Amino acid sequence: MGMLKGFTVPKSPFGQAALAPPPPWHYSSDVVGVEFWTDPRAAAATLPIGLSPDPTSNGHALMMFLDWQFTAQDDEYLDPARYQYREAFVLLDAMYRDTPVRWCPYIFVDNDAALARGWTQGFPKKIGSIFQTRTFAAASPAAAPVAPGSRFGASLSAHGQRLAEARITLQKPVENGLSLLSRPTVLLRYFPRLATGYHDKPAVNELAMSITDNLTVAEAWIGEGELNLPEAEGEELHALAPNRVASGFRFSLSYSVSDLKILEDYAP
Prior knowledge:
The chain contains three helices and 14 strands. The chain is globular and about 60 Å long. The longest helix is centred in the middle third of the chain and has 10 residues, at 112-121.
C-alpha cells in the first residue's frame, strides 16, 4: 500500500482527485460591490470570540460579487469547468485587539474546489448561484462598458431563494483602488468532531488572518449603489440588510495565497 497523495480530500494514489491542488493559489476576478451600513447590533452578533465591534465605523460593511478564474502550478486555468467560479460574500468592519479588520460571516460559491479551498482558509462557504453583469470590449447595448453612467447588476440565490440583489451605476474612476480593500480579512477555521462526547470540542478552532500576496486592483470605479437582502428561510444574511448605502463600486482584482496567520487557537 503506497502513501495516498493530495492537498485536500479525496486523497488518492496520484493526488489528481483532490478537490484543491496545493498552494500557492492564484486568483483573478471582476468584482461588483456595494458599501453600506447595517445595524451595528446585528453585525456585532456575528463576531466570533477574539473580535470586537469597531466603534468608529458602527456597522460599516461591504457586499461583493465576484467572477473568478483560478490557477495553481499546473495551468489549472486551462480547465475552466473546474477552476472558474462565482462568489458572493459580506465583510463587516471589526477590531482584532487594536487592529482594524474585516470579518466574513457569510459567503457563497458555485464550485466545489472553491468550497474546499475556502474551508481550508476559514471562509464559511456554502453553495449558491451567483451572477453579475459582464463587460465586453465590442460596443453594444449589452456590452456594459466601464464608463460613466454604466450600470451593473448582481445577484445571489441558494436553494431556490433569492438572498441578495445589487445594482450599481458607475460615476468615476478611483485613484487608489486598494483603498477599497484597506483592512485585512479575519476568518474562523472551524472543524467539529462527530465522536460522542466531543461535539463541543472542535478539532480545529482558530481565528486566522488572510494573507494575500501581490494584491492588485485595476480599473476601479465608484458610483451609486443599491442593495437588497431579502429575508430567506434557513439563512441569516438578511439580518445584515442595509440601513444606508454609501456607494457602488466595480474593479478587477488579483492576488495569490500560500499562507495564513493564526491569531488565536481555541481548540481544546
